[in-house]
From TrEMBL:
SUPFAM superfamilies with a match to the protein in the record: Nucleoside diphosphate kinase, NDK
Lineage, broadest ranks: Bacteria, Pseudomonadati, Pseudomonadota, Alphaproteobacteria, Hyphomicrobiales
SMART domains: NDK (SM00562)
Superkingdom of origin organism: Bacteria
PANTHER family tied to this protein: NUCLEOSIDE DIPHOSPHATE KINASE, NUCLEOSIDE DIPHOSPHATE KINASE DDB_G0292928-RELATED
Subunit structure, interactors included: Homotetramer.
Reactions listed under catalytic activity: a 2'-deoxyribonucleoside 5'-diphosphate + ATP = a 2'-deoxyribonucleoside 5'-triphosphate + ADP; a ribonucleoside 5'-diphosphate + ATP = a ribonucleoside 5'-triphosphate + ADP
Localization per Swiss-Prot or TrEMBL: Cytoplasm
Keywords: ATP-binding, Cytoplasm, Kinase, Magnesium, Metal-binding, Nucleotide metabolism, Nucleotide-binding, Phosphoprotein, Transferase
Listed name of the protein: Nucleoside diphosphate kinase
Named cofactor requirement(s): Mg(2+)
PROSITE patterns found in the cross-reference section: NDPK, NDPK_LIKE
Active site: H117 (pros-phosphohistidine intermediate)
Length: 140
């Protein structure tokens, strides 16, 4: 195992319900460190680029509109095996299938509005971090 960095988004359904601190507490209690963080509004172009892998899926338009529907908090999380650990802490994409103790089980409303994003691999983590953060904004 190695120290990794993963990219996280606290999505608009969560910021709307004032859950940034509650989610950050779950992240920090899990042992992951928040080494970069900013609250932004995502542009249509940013959302389309970010989710380009899903551009042919029927829910793509809805997904882009949702990501633009309110503020998001973009973050870089650091720790041993951070990518897999954050995926585990997030829980399943569909919150009705998410395990007890996960962020999505605790907070997510639906498969579309599921409160958090986390990178799924080393390569995608690097690409996603670079889309939203300059190197000097990440303080480990
Ligand atoms: P994850 O966010 O768990 O990595 P994903 O990469 O498969 O899941 O999909 C990205 C996002 O797209 C997901 O968080 C919510 C949305 N999405 C996925 N499947 C969906 C579906 N069947 N209906 C509506 N939105 C969906
Ligand atoms: Mg994904």
């Amino acid at each position: 195992m190695a120290v990794e960095r993963t990219f996280s988004i606290i999505k608009p359904d969560a910021t709307a319900r004032n859950l940034t601190g509650a989610i950050n507490a779950m992240i920090e209690q899990s042992g992951l460190r928040i080494v970069a963080q900013k609250r932004i509004r995502i542009t249509r172009e940013q959302a389309q680029t970010f989710y380009a892998v899903h551009s042919q899926r029927p829910f793509f338009g809805e997904l882009v509109d949702f990501m633009m529907s309110g503020p998001v908090v973009v973050q870089v999380l650091e720790g041993e095996n951070a990518i897999a650990r954050y995926r585990e802490l997030m829980g399943a994409t569909d919150p009705s299938k998410a395990a007890e103790g996960t962020i999505r089980k605790a907070h997510a409303a639906s498969i579309g509005e599921n409160s958090v994003h986390g990178s799924d691999a080393v390569e995608t983590a690097a690409i996603e971090i670079a889309q939203f953060f300059a190197g000097n904004e990440i303080v480990g």
